[in-house]
Specification:
Elements: H1 3-18, E1 27-31, E2 34-38, H2 46-59, E3 68-72, H3 78-85, E4 89-94, H4 97-106, E5 111-114, E6 127-130, H5 137-150, E7 156-159, H6 164-170, E8 171-172, E9 175-176, E10 184-185, E11 195-199, H7 205-209
Parallel strand pairs: 3-4, 3-6, 4-5, 6-7
Antiparallel strand pairs: 1-2, 7-11, 8-9, 10-11
Helix pairs in contact: 2-3
Bound molecules: S-adenosylmethionine.
Length: about 210
């Protein structure tokens, strides 16, 4: 980890401990009549995120200061601030209001909202990032379908891991399935553990869901 990432990590640890949020458990929420559980606040690497976000911003056909970045399950909002420092408009949302309140106090130039990822509208954003918001692979797959159906053409999804269901639906041994090559672009970037897909055209969500 770079020194920058380590400094942020220590500050985050301090803020979480001071607010009694360190090690806060899984996050319950209602979805389709059942209680589901969001993944607790376990952070992904700041350095890998920063490198990947910069590469992704170059895929998007607009100047960096016009790019609308969104972090799903943003916690304290550090990834949003990194995106903003690189010139993007940054928005983050989280289910847990305590995180959103703190993020608003710390990073004044980003926008933070309290929202559920499975109900959010992703249509306004060019670059969406998440790191395991859910335990359940089926919910993660629902989230991926939702994001890709909402994203504008040219929009990019950057994640630490696509769901198993999404990967089964999207890829075969030759990479992206032939039937999806006109819809999704995999830039094949070397981004550590991070994965990226760009939306190339409007698509029928059911065509993907049916393959899982
Ligand atoms: C693994 S942490 C990721 C933290 C940060 N994004 C990062 O990359 O370091 C997952 C976050 O997702 C949030 N979360 C869980 N379920 C959610 C949901 N249904 N909608 C929005 N956020 C959710 C949690 O509160 C937590 O902050």
């Amino acid at each position: 980890m770079s020194n920058f990432g380590e400094v942020i990590r220590q500050l985050e640890d301090f803020v979480l401990a001071e607010n009694d949020l360190y090690g806060a458990g899984r996050v319950p929420f209602e979805h389709e009549g059942e209680t589901q559980y969001g993944y607790p606040y376990v952070r992904s690497s700041h350095r890998l995120f920063e490198e990947a976000a910069l590469v992704c911003s170059n895929l998007i056909p607009k100047p960096v200061h016009d790019i609308r970045f969104l972090e799903v399950g943003c916690g304290l909002g550090t990834k949003c601030e990194i995106a903003r420092q690189h010139g993007m408009h940054a928005t983050g949302f989280d289910l847990k209001s305590e995180y959103v309140t703190l993020a608003r106090q710390i990073f004044l130039d980003c926008t933070f909202l309290e929202a559920n990822a499975l109900e959010f509208d992703y249509g306004e954003f060019d670059l969406v990032y998440y790191h395991v918001p859910f335990f359940d692979d089926r919910l993660l797959f629902q989230l991926e379908l939702r994001i890709f159906s909402h994203l504008p053409i040219g929009g990019v999804l950057l994640v630490t891991n696509f769901s198993q269901a999404f990967q089964r639906a999207m890829y075969d041994s030759d990479g992206i399935r032939t039937s999806f090559r006109s819809v999704f672009f995999d830039p094949g970037l070397e981004l550590g553990d991070l994965q990226v897909l760009q939306k190339k055209s409007i698509f029928d969500v059911q065509s993907l869901a049916g393959l899982s």
